[in-house]
Amino acid sequence: MAIAAFYWIAFAAFAVPAAVLELDNGSGLFGVGGKGAAARAAHGGGPEYARFRNNYLAVFALAMAGDWLQGPYVYHLYEYYGFSVRDIGRLFIMGFASSAVVGTVAGAMADKYGRKLAALLYVATYCLSCATKHSSSYKMLLLGRLLGGVSTSLLFSVFESWAVAAHAAHGFEETLLADLFTKAVMLGNGIMAIASGLVGSWLVQGLGLGPVAPFDAAIAVLLVGGAIVAATWEENRGGSGDGTTSLVRQFQAAAMTIARDERVALLGVMQALFEASMYTFVFLWTPALNPHTYVPATPGAPAAAASAGAAEPHLPHGLVFAIFMTASMVGTALAGRLMATLRLEAVLQGVFWAGAALLAVPAAYHTQLADHARASDALLGESSAFELEQAGAAAAAAAVAGLPTPAAQLDMGGRVQLLAFCGFEVLIGLFWPSMMALRARYVPEEQRSTIINIFRIPLNTFVCIILWKVSDFPLGVVFALCCCFLAAAALAQARLAAITAVGLDRDGSPLPLNGLETKPSGGAYDGAAALGKGAAKAVALTSKNGSSSVLRSGRAVEAGDTLSAPQQQQQQQLQQQQQQQQQQQHRRQPQQQQMQQLGISIGAGARPQQASQQQHWWRGLFGSG
């Protein structure tokens, strides 16, 4: 009972702050009431923005619910059909491989033929994937995983791309994107995840409908979302959506954007490294907390009792999953506050370093058990003599006596790991809205779906390797590798923060010192209002005559004002940048001619000024250029 209380206390420890923070933010999920920063941002958009936001949130919530309903039961369904662990692993590899290959092409087609059409394609492919779960044929299930991989790529690129383009087309303030993405993550990855888990459990255990029932429910939810998209969404496309550019040239254009613009490349590195760590954590938290393999309840239980038929205590997966989701909601609720007061680059850098520190906890813990604990032990259900000796005496006695298998009794090491995993979930909740806002700022709108899916290629490749070779890596090594990934992501973020502190916008104009753009791709933008509380007091802006002025406390500094030493230094830096632009102006013609020969149009996200400044940034890594 005391151990069960620990789980519920952990759940309440994150559920209460998540609710308090969201209520204090004030806008609620659909902007109802409140007086926080989110509420002021939402109300500032007016009724038209409220309608746009609520429509997008409803569609995104249904799309995510269709995905969350399936998640907990995919592996269980394959076991139900009697497939071996090796066969199940191949099924999962098919999903990630199709996401890396076919999903990337589908994302490029979304930019070319339309994001609304791609959203409807997501509904169709995921419904077909769910329908294949009624068959126990291995080939049919492989087809289902292939369709599911394509659907996943569309889910995590198309909806975001449509929202950014539609937001700009309506002329809404760019600062409202942070409000939109924060609510979308809170609703889609928090509330809908918990609700989907409860509904799935009710269908399978409560009503006894079997492991296929959640997939049928997902079809119904997805069809409702698809109907809303078909009836209410307007079509929007990327810059090459006129149909005159081939997919090959579209990929060339996206690759050239990544090669030219170091900021875009750094975003891809950060996204791939963080998501690789995140998915590895998703796969391995169960064996890491498994009381039979790694987390002894009462050391010294007789091995004979365990081998005589003792059932190991089981983790309450549903409750642990709910704890993780509430922790993620805390991070999402914090994201809105942090994004209003700090530079996005600073927020993400803190996320990456904190993530590396938190995953170092299971890495250190399982390094001590490296000779005994491998991920395959839990996945394959194997038990060594060491593990049997460490099984809980109470659990063994209960199983031998025919009593129900008790809930997992985590020792202190297991509890510390659980809390570290909860902390990592908080960081996941912080990561998504922050990364979405950065992608909206730096990734060209006309190539967004293509570039986002290109970013997912290394992620899916790494996950496939982990699934294929999971039995060869001790848990401590895998978690240590994740720590290295997160540390590398933090270094990439530090580089991004350095080059954007005083850099150029996508259109060649200087970026303010706090990293916020002086003007978005669509609509007017008030740079002073976007600074937010706690932002830098001095922001560099470019005046009409090409000279630099400094914004001090929301007022432009006139020629007769006295500038402080830091402000003078900022002006000098801006003047140097403008001189560099003028000197490099003549270099643009050959680059433009080359791009025109490829049939690539230079849109708002890939302007010539940016190309001349960022061209071949990667050559510096090899000492050339």
Automatic annotation (TrEMBL):
Q: Where is this region: Disordered?
A: 555-625
Superkingdom of the organism of origin: Eukaryota
Q: Where does the secretion signal sit in this chain?
A: 1-20
Molecular function GO terms recorded: molybdate ion transmembrane transporter activity
Give an example GO cellular component term for this record.
plasma membrane
Question: Record's CDD domains?
Answer: MFS_MFSD5_like
The protein's matches in InterPro entries, at most eight in alphabetical order, are given as: MFS_trans_sf, MOT2/MFSD5
> Low complexity compositional bias: what residue ranges?
567-597
| Primary localization | membrane
Q: Which Gene3D superfamilies match?
A: MFS general substrate transporter like domains (1.20.1250.20)
Q: Which GO terms describe its biological process?
A: monoatomic ion transport
Its membrane topology is listed as: Multi-pass membrane protein
What PANTHER family does this protein's entry cite? Answer: MOLYBDATE-ANION TRANSPORTER, SAM (S-ADENOSYL METHIONINE) TRANSPORTER
One Pfam family here: MFS_5
Q: What is this protein called?
A: Molybdate-anion transporter
Keyword annotations from UniProtKB, A to Z: Cell membrane, Ion transport, Membrane, Signal, Transmembrane, Transmembrane helix, Transport
Q: What does this protein do?
A: Mediates high-affinity intracellular uptake of the rare oligo-element molybdenum.
Q: Which compartments does it reside in? A: Cell membrane
